[in-house]
Fold:
Amino acid sequence: MKNLIQEAKNIIDKRYKKNCFTVGCAVKTKSGKIYTGTCINSQKLDICSEWVTIGKAFSEGNYNIEMVATVKKHKDGTYEIYPPCALCRELYITYCPKAKIIISEKQIKKASDLLPHAWQKKR
Ligand SMILES: [Zn+2]
Structure:
């Protein structure tokens, strides 16, 4: 858990720019591989770091997401673990409902527990 949080902090520090790339995500797959990514902000649209990072894993054929950590870097240089937004909860329920999501320093939740009674598209 701490390692994944640190990986999320590391990717922010590598890519950080003022008001840009301020949220980082680290994902661990069942194979043990770790992927990292940052949010992408534009004038009209913000893409969460979770979508970027899970997209990287999926693009490389790793669909079994085991754990996710997302961290925000504030302007004062401090970090905060970010619980997922509603769109990210939809992402998890669709693609990795059993994944463990780090929502605070001491709390991990199963992804499916973060969006109870979710509508799901039949596949
Ligand atoms: Zn989100």
Residues 48, 50, 84-85, 87-88 surround zinc ion (CB under 6 Å). The chain has one domain: 2-114.
